[in-house]
């Protein structure tokens, strides 16, 4: 399947909806798969997104590209799904497990037990396909809710109080703690799985 | 003086909310003197940037496209026969 790059900078009209599946289906599917980790569910999301897009195409104002517009609809669908998914709250278990994690990081006086050195030229990694594989692998090693919280914050730009509502059963303080731990784990994972490796090993 | 443990928590929180001025100044002071927390701060900002551009790299992560069966099913469902 060829990768369809964004057609034009800011088209003011939409292309034929009958072409959307062919043009954007793979992209939407891959995006949804990263967020939901389930191919059937990701397929359903593509379907729902395209259907919603067709139904609301008259509301398209041409302010964003067609692809960005469709991605926005998909994001809403994913957020709705997370909101409705009554996943059991595994927070207490994760919490207990996490406390040990943090104790490894700091000594009794709150000083780092580990050394953190600057990553050299991290931006160069963004152009490497193998970096992205490792990145998402690290993401998927996070406890589920923690990964959801991180992506709701950093990908969707939701505020913490909205994240509480989406995930259900969390206070804003829980969410700050969860985000802080998610970032700490991601940092560590990228450090060991990517940046600490010799360029030749990558 | 903030401990590194407190500072690391504030570094993360500064990405999620606007810290009170006094707290911001204490954090800045700590960062100006602490190499490790400064590296941590930069790495969390890098993490934010990475997640921001992840949508441009979904194909690298999941090379598999939608299956033909899925495409047919979706196509039928949304009524755009091909």
Strand coverage percent of chain A: under 5%
How far is the N terminus from the C terminus of chain B? 67 Å
Overall geometric form of chain A: globular
User: Uncertain runs of chain A with pLDDT below 50, 5 residues or more?
Assistant: 1-5
Q: Which two chains form the greatest contact, residue counts included?
A: A-B, 58 and 44 residues
Helix vs. strand class of chain B: mainly alpha
What would the average pLDDT of chain B be, to the nearest integer?
94
What do you see in this structure?
The complex is a heterodimer of chains A (202) and B (82). Chain A has helices spanning 20-36, 39-55, 66-84, 91-105, 122-125, 129-141, 144-154, 160-167, 172-195. Helix content of chain A is 63%, strand content 0%. The relative contact order of chain A is 0.10. With 202 residues, chain A is an all-alpha fold. Chain A contains 9 helices and no strands. Chain B is mostly helical and 82 residues long. The longest helix of chain B is centred in the middle third of the chain and has 19 residues, at 35-53. Chain B is elongated and about 65 Å long. The termini of chain B are far apart. Chain B contains 5 helices and no strands. The model of chain B has no long low-confidence stretch (mean pLDDT 94). Classes of the chains: A mainly alpha (202), B mainly alpha (82). Chains A and B meet through helix 1, helix 2, helix 6, helix 7 and helix 9 of A and helix 1, helix 3, helix 4 and helix 5 of B.
Features:
heterodimer, A: 202 residues, mainly alpha, 63% helix, globular, disordered N terminus, B: 82 residues, 5 helices, elongated
Brief account:
Chain A is mostly helical and 202 residues long. Helix content of chain A is 63%, strand content 0%. Chain A has 9 helices and no strands.
Secondary structure elements and their pairing?
The complex is a heterodimer of chains A (202) and B (82).
Chain A lengths: L19 H17 L2 H17 L10 H19 L6 H15 L16 H4 L3 H13 L2 H11 L5 H8 L4 H24 L7
Helix pairs in contact in A: 1-2, 1-3, 2-3, 6-9, 7-9, 8-9
Chain B lengths: L3 H10 L7 H13 L1 H19 L4 H4 L6 H11 L4
